[in-house]
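Hi there,

I know you've been waiting on this one. I reran it after we fixed the sequence typo, so this is the corrected version. Both the input and the resulting structure follow.
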Amino acid sequence: MSDQDCCCCTAKVGQAAPQFDMPAVVDGRLDARARLKDLKGKWVVLYFYPLDFTFVCPTEITGLDNRINEFQELNAVVIGCSTDSVHSHNAWMQKSPKEGGIGKLVHPLASDLTGKVCRDYGVYLDDQGIALRGLFIIDPDGVLQYGVVHALNVGRSVDETLRVLQALQSGGLCPINWQPGQSTLKV
């Protein structure tokens, strides 16, 4: 079996993050692109979710979007991704939450129709053609610094994502439950 045939992900913490270039919906535009190479110098929070028009996903997506200013203040870009098309993403964003949609978002939703990026990050479920709930933080030099993958039925924590991002940016040794403003460990 060649490396290209392997089902294992290529994403490894401490190594260069797998590159991606996907169509995305940004501010109602279907012709946008989400490219890692365009984000050099920024922190990137790349998260994967299973499907549009589902139940847990809207809580995560809108939760992240509601706190987008906090990510931007930390020089971070947030990108959501699923195996749905940009047309599905756009239709979902055109509906209000009361109508089963998510409404307008500030951050982009990318489309990984082939599942290649999902595979690269180790979140693709071959038997279902969808992604697990994965979240990855990539530093300004393109190095993967953090990754977490959840089961389909468990949403992620925006507070924890922001805490980890700030811990990574501190450059120090951050003990359990470290919070921004607290001292890091001295050795």
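Quick highlight: The helical segments are 56-66, 68-73, 86-94, 116-120, 158-170.

Best,
R. S.
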